[in-house]
Amino acid sequence: MSASDAGVAAAPTGKAESILAAAQRTFLANGFGAASMDAIAREAGASKATLYAYFASKEELFGAVVARESERYAREFPAGELDPHEVEASLTLIADRFLRLLLSPEVIAINRIIIGEVARFPVLAEVFWRAGPERIRAQVEGFLRRAAAVGSVEVPDTRLAAEQFTSLVRGEIHLQRLLGLGAAEPDAIAAAARAAVATFRRAFSAKA
Fold first, then answer.
1. Which is it for the CA torsion 143, 149, 151, 155, positive or negative?
2. Domains identified in the chain and CATH numbers
3. Residue 8: pLDDT band by 50, 70, 90 thresholds?
4. How far apart are CA 180 and CA 172, in angstroms?
5. Three-state DSSP class for residue 205
6. Whether 190 contacts 180, CB under 8 Å
7. In the predicted structure, residue 95 carries a pLDDT above the cut 80
8. Which residues, in sequence order, are bridge partners of residue 153?
9. Cα separation of 5 and 49, whole Å?
């Protein structure tokens, strides 16, 4: 998957990365509402002025933390690994790594923050959606466009198909982890990824 397909910015470096790491620790430990920019600055070993020089608000900083996790996922897909002529293998790779991201402790914790605090902080909904799910949907859509262009799949609406694919991949296993119903074992993740791809392929396989 190319950077243009994914729409992914370069990974933050130096002080910005230090601030993001500190912000993630602070948000995960305290939630969004209780985390302050002062506390994040202390955790990062930076002044508050430095913090605001990189991020204009706590909402922007939270969005950057979510985007950081999305970018980590995107960087796991070198373009050479995703062959539009080999749709099943490529989609299985996408599904497996997407599930591993979704079920990681960090992302589960971020999801719980959103669920718990979005009623008090409605702006979090859009911040989270644009930085996380929307970016990943765009990544999947980019690959489906390439696969459709070479005739590997028949996808009349690549955006809708990407939404359907990511929903299939999430399945029940994601909700179970959000609810704390046991750990997702590697075999279960692999099986869920394969099942999602099989269902998607039945719906969108190119006709012979």
1. positive
2. 10-204 (1.10.357.10)
3. very low
4. 12
5. strand
6. no
7. yes
8. 205
9. 35
- Closest by CA position to 106, among listed 77, 56, 71, 140: 71
Instruction: Give the position of tokens 């590997």.
Output: 152
Kindly tell me if the per-residue pLDDT of 208 is higher than 60. no
Pick the closest to residue 11 from 68, 79, 74, 78 (CA basis): 68
- Can you tell me which residue has the tokens 């601030």? 19
Q: What is the DSSP string of 20-45?
A: HHHHHHHHHHHHHHH--HHHHHHHHT
CB 110 within 8 A of CB 85: no
Q: Please report, to the nearest 10 degrees, the dihedral formed by the alpha carbons of residues 197, 10, 142, 122 taken in order.
A: 80
- The reported pLDDT for the residue numbered 45 is 93
pLDDT digits (tens, 9 = 90+) for 155-166: 999 999 999 999
CB burial class (10 A; 0-12, 13-18, 19+) of residue 59? middle
Measured CA to CA, the distance from residue 203 to residue 187 in angstroms comes to 25
Q: How far apart are CA 111 and CA 23, in angstroms?
A: 16
- Please give the single-letter amino acid code of residue 173: I
Tokens of 172: 């029940």
Give pLDDT tens digits for 44-66.
999 999 999 999 999 999 988 88
Question: Distance (Å, rounded) from C-alpha 142 to C-alpha 31?
Answer: 33
